[in-house]
Specification:
Lipoxygenase-1, six-stranded antiparallel beta sheet, 4 domains, 495 residues, 2 helices, mainly beta, globular, five-stranded antiparallel beta sheet
Length: 495
């Protein structure tokens, strides 16, 4: 803990000159807080830390150690357990990040607090048994378990003791093997599911420049194409954050630009938000861990490539987050954060460091003549996307209370994503997308389940409300895709 910085403890009032700061701030998402600390620029340059002490009646106190940075630091989700809970065993596993079939041998240690470092003295340390550990009779609270094994990078994760509500198996902690040469391994973890989303997917896109490599060309590595151009998806986790996350490895990076991003595959149908997953991504090279990326502030419009409405303190449930790019012109490769939320496939980096997200211009241009194409329900419209990864927008005026069935039929466009927004009127009488109310990523839907050549969804317009127009967005799924499609929205189609 940095001596000049201090704690947040709403249950006490610190002396005026103690260096302590406290808050009970909560806005937007229940339980959210923002704490303004003095001298953060100076302390960040000095490698300073702050210790957060979070307390609430009826719950055990949680302690979080935070490395200070310039600007806003997001500490992620802070967990608390019942203060009346009884001691319980904590059991879990340490896994090989790159090889799910390998057994990790070594030690597991238990440390107090969330995000405790290896430098913190352990409360207990035991030998792993076939990769598993069990700490018995742990007092209620949230702790850190660190796994260590020869030839692997030590890694830590959060666990909790909550009496009979203690999870029977804690999150699997993934250790990457020690990297060699130009290897890069990146490990994504997120909070247990539920309450967070079950299925997050790693993606990396790049151009493979080695002519001897099979699959040479435009590489896109993800769950449906797990290897290309010396890059591979080692682990694909579809069961929840408690099962260890996902791992991506670039075995020999080329002198090209890699763009790494995450897609919250299950967010839409689970009605959950990527911004609330507690996602953390750690990247390793031959120098050890070189980067740790956490979720950007979800209420700051500058952290979005596009945003369905002005920030209001609520999470809007975007589907994608661009994470970082790789500069492979140096060895070991350099990792540069390029964090930006996006509704569709993130804009690829053309240089690394990548250009920082500029946010969204929510102001209206009174001289702007272009806008969404006005369409009439029941009429089929031909359209096209000429720029890779771009969108086309269509606006219509519905009848309140009616169901609408909207479809995008692909002709030469290879893959699409379609959204429906409430339209907000802006200066000059034009409209811009507001709150997203429907979404489909080329998945068949009821009642016929026969839409396999594009996207479709149902939506009932509320009988009353202030929204008079709606906007349809059809986006090319990939940044390289262009082509033609047809769009149709039909009224009076009853489900």
């Amino acid at each position: 803990m940095d001596g000049a910085m201090a704690t947040m403890d709403p249950s006490t009032v610190p002396p005026a000159d103690s260096g302590l700061r406290q808050t009970n701030y909560s806005a937007g998402d229940p339980g959210a807080f923002m704490l303004h600390l003095p001298f953060t620029r100076h302390l960040a340059r000095q490698g300073g830390f702050a210790e957060l002490i979070v307390s609430k009646p009826g719950l055990s106190t949680s302690r979080v150690s935070v490395a200070l940075q310039m600007g806003t630091v997001s500490v992620g989700n802070v967990f608390m357990v019942s203060a009346s809970a009884t001691p319980a065993p904590i059991a879990g596993a340490c896994g090989n990040a790159r090889d799910s079939g390998a057994t990790v041998y070594g030690t597991a240690s238990l440390r107090a607090g969330i995000y405790a470092e290896l430098s913190t003295d352990p409360l207990d340390q035991i030998a792993l048994s076939s990769g598993s550990y069990t700490f018995g009779g742990v007092e209620p609270g949230v702790y850190t378990v660190c796994c260590e094994s020869p030839g692997m990078v030590p890694t830590c994760g959060n666990v909790c003791s909550n009496g009979p509500l203690t999870p029977p198996a804690a999150q699997t902690i993934l250790l990457p093997p020690t990297m060699l040469g130009n290897q890069v391994t990146t490990v994504m973890t997120w909070d247990p599911s539920p309450p967070t989303a079950t299925d997050l997917d790693f993606h990396v896109q790049f151009v493979a420049t080695d002519p001897t490599v099979e699959n040479n060309g435009n590489c896109h590595v993800y769950y449906a194409n797990m290897e290309c151009g010396m890059a591979q998806l080692d682990r694909d986790n579809v069961r929840g954050g408690q099962y260890g996350g996902e791992t991506m490895t670039m075995n020999d990076v080329y002198q090209t630009i890699y763009t790494v991003y995450v897609h919250c595959y299950s967010c839409y149908w689970e009605n959950l938000a990527l911004e609330d997953t507690g996602l953390t991504v750690k990247t390793f090279t031959a120098e050890g861990q070189v980067s740790e990326i956490t979720l950007p502030d979800p209420t700051d419009v500058d952290n979005y490539e596009e945003y369905p409405g002005a920030p209001d303190g609520a999470f809007h449930g975007v589907a994608y987050l661009r994470l970082y790019c790789i500069d492979a012109s140096v060895s070991p490769p350099a990792i540069h954060p390029a964090r930006a939320y996006s509704m569709g496939t993130p804009v690829a980096c053309t240089s690394c460091p990548c250009d920082a997200p500029e946010g969204v211009d929510l102001s209206a241009d009174e001289d702007e003549e272009d806008g969404p194409l006005v369409i009439a329900p029941g009429t089929l419209y031909d359209s096209s996307i000429l720029t890779g990864g771009a969108s086309q927008f269509f606006i219509f005026e519905p009848t309140p209370g009616y169901w609408y069935y909207t479809q995008a039929w692909l002709t030469t466009l290879g893959d699409s994503v379609m959204y429906l927004y409430e339209a907000n009127q802006v200066a000059g009488g034009s409209y811009e997308p507001g709150t997203m109310v429907a979404y489909n990523d080329d998945r068949a839907d009821p009642p016929s389940w026969d839409q396999y050549y594009g996207s479709s969804f149902w939506y009932q317009v509320p009988f009353s409300g202030g929204t008079t127009h709606y906007i349809i967005e059809v986006r090319a799924y990939g940044s390289w895709q262009t082509g033609e499609f047809q769009v149709l929205t039909e009224a009076n189609v009853w489900r």
